[in-house]
Amino acid sequence: MKRVLALLVVPAALLLAGCGEKQEAVTASSGSQRFTLMLDWFPNADHAGIYQAQAEGDFKRAGRALHVQVPADPASPLELLAAGKVDAAISYEPEVMLARNRDLPIVSVAAIVQEPLTSIVSVGSKKIKTVQQLRGKRVGDAGITYQHAYLQTILAHAGVPAGSVTETNVGANLVPAMLSGRVDATLGAYWNYEAIQLQQMGKHPNVIRVNKVGVPNYDELVVAVRRDTLTKHPDEVRRFLQAMGRGYKSVRSDPSTAVDNLVSVFRRWLFLWHCL
Questions:
Q1: What is the DSSP letter of 90?
Q2: Of 161, 195, 212, at which residue does a domain stop?
Q3: Mean local confidence (pLDDT), 122-150
Q4: Does the predicted model carry a pTM greater than 0.90?
Q5: Same domain for 110 and 230?
């Protein structure tokens, strides 16, 4: 977990995008309003700053009683946000773009991870170190539309015929699919998560970052809110983001405490998940 966090804290500095840089004094609030944030996935190192800010009272001082929810379906956060079921959601920049193409009334207001984490990952025994070595191989992904587009773009950029690669939807089972031999590589695994997991298992993973092989740079994780929330309550959104930013700053200055907070949260989530 500490290795994961060490890789995370540099790219996870919060970027306030579209909310300006107005500085506001943050003082304790006796009337904190409930604010629900839905994660993109289960609690992990990408969310360390959120839980650090929560543990240190940053959200309360910003007048927010933060409630963090974990989605039952990773595809649901933006739909629930648009429907007004949550106040903010963490998602992926491509997902936000697709949602806006469907006229969902949401906007991205900050970037938590400001570079792509998505990679083509394989175990070392497969000896897949270049895109050209995917020819004749099976590549698993989560069945997400833009991941298919990534693969097509990457293959075209490398001059590899798309028909020479078999694309397989493995859902969320990226690592099991590789370990079982169902696929030779996956597109969708993160270089700061699944790749480290495989390394710790002694599988010597090979990692090809998508932005190094033809996919333009983008923000992997962003914070989205409803358009009317940003229009009607810009200061509230700003204060929420500033509190979150303080949490990520604290992670960089005190990673050990951040790890302890995150591990505690993850254990509670895992216990509740097993009880469902």
A1: E
A2: 212
A3: 95
A4: no
A5: yes
CA separation for the pair 143, 124 (Å, rounded): 24
The answer on 201 and 151 residing in a single domain is yes
By residue range, what is the domain housing residue 226?
A: 2-19+27-115+218-275
Q: How far apart are the C-alpha atoms of 218 and 148, rounded to whole Å?
A: 16
Residue 144, CA distances (Å) to 128, 141, 198, 211 in order? 23, 7, 23, 18
Task: Name the nearest CA neighbour of 132 among 104, 157, 160.
Answer: 160
One domain, residues 106 and 6:
yes
Query: What is the tens place of the pLDDT at every residue in 51-65?
Result: 999 999 999 999 999
Tokens of 132: 């050209």
Averaged pLDDT for residues 191-196:
92
Supply 159's token pair.
Answer: 């001059």
C-beta neighbour count of 13 within 10 angstroms? 16
Q: Torsions phi, psi of 189, nearest 5?
A: -70, 150
Tokens of 229: 């929330």
Contact 67, 51 (CB under 8 A): no
Looking at residue 217, what DSSP letter applies? P
